[in-house]
Write a structure and sequence with these properties.
Order of helices and strands: EEEEHEEEEEEEHEEEEEEEH
Largest sheet: 8 strands, antiparallel
CATH topology of the largest domain: Thrombin, subunit H
Mean pLDDT: 89
Shape: globular
Structural class: mainly beta
Helix content: under 10%
Strand content: over 45%
Low-confidence stretches: 1-15
Number of strands: 18
């Protein structure tokens, strides 16, 4: 039996707040606006590429169209979001937030970045370049690609954790709510013909865009020895939650390599 300890979060860059862990700071509540009116809410998180900061969330949060059914969220008027408000951590003041408003369109052209799949369709994952981050603190998730790609094979029933804003609710102030689930599909496969995996978790609207983590103690298969191994981590980003697919009644998570590809192609 192999025991491996993985530490993937950077230390807090702001003053400590009682009971708040680094992983509580990654998810951010986002509010979608349409013609200055609230359209809905979701979840996002910040990643960086070549010194540029991006909001990562789901495509359907920005389009207002369900990715899997292609139906408008606003089935009557077919309204779509045109702005996003990000509740970001106030710089140097942990436990306080500032609203950062970003446009989604300029001259009728969308401003977010997409990643195109082999089927010529975009993934349900987008990045939006953040223009002004001077007054906010950013806590980024790390993707431990070496662990998943080179060291271990994930196994079904592995515990997974999501942090987001179900139905717009928060745990306290604007901190996210944590949800628990298990890996329900073979991680190396592609359910639905997409680079995703399925989870069994009780989720709600508003959690779309939530980061999905391996946390605590979990088991896997060592790629070299093919033996079971035990691991422990305070948080490894596995992907981004995309909502529930009614055809399989399971949650859909886009894998971290989609986020990697998206960032590498973002402008």
């Amino acid at each position: 039996m192999i025991i491996i300890f993985i530490i993937t979060f950077k230390p807090l860059l702001a003053q400590k707040s009682a009971g708040v862990s680094p992983s509580d700071l990654i998810s951010l509540k986002i509010i979608l606006l349409s013609n200055h009116q609230i359209f809905g809410s979701g979840t996002g998180f910040i990643m960086s590429q070549n010194g540029t900061n991006y909001l990562i969330t789901n495509l359907h949060n920005f389009t207002g169209i369900d990715y899997y059914t292609q139906k408008y969220e606003d089935s009557i008027n077919h309204r779509v979001p045109d702005e996003v408000v990000i509740l970001a951590h106030k710089k140097g003041s942990l436990g306080e937030w500032v609203e950062k408003k970003e446009p989604l369109f300029k001259n009728n052209v969308h401003l977010w970045n997409e990643v195109i799949l082999p089927n010529s369709k975009p993934a349900d994952v987008v990045s939006l370049k953040l223009i002004d981050t001077s007054d906010i603190s950013m806590y980024r998730a790390n993707m431990d690609t070496a662990l998943i790609e080179k060291q271990m094979l994930l196994i079904t029933t592995t515990p997974l954790y999501l942090s987001g804003y179900p139905l717009g609710f928060t745990s306290s102030k604007n901190y996210p709510i944590w949800k628990y689930g298990i890996l329900s599909s073979i991680y190396e496969d592609e359910p639905l013909g997409l680079p995703v995996f399925l989870i069994d978790a009780h989720t709600h609207p508003g959690m779309s865009g939530s980061p999905v983590f391996l946390k605590g103690k979990f088991s896997g298969i060592d790629r070299k020895s093919r033996d079971y191994a035990d691991y422990e981590s305070n948080g490894i980003l596995l992907g981004i939650f995309s909502g529930s697919n009614s055809s399989v009644e399971m949650g859909v998570v886009w894998k971290f390599e989609v986020i990697q590809k998206l960032l590498s192609e973002s402008n």
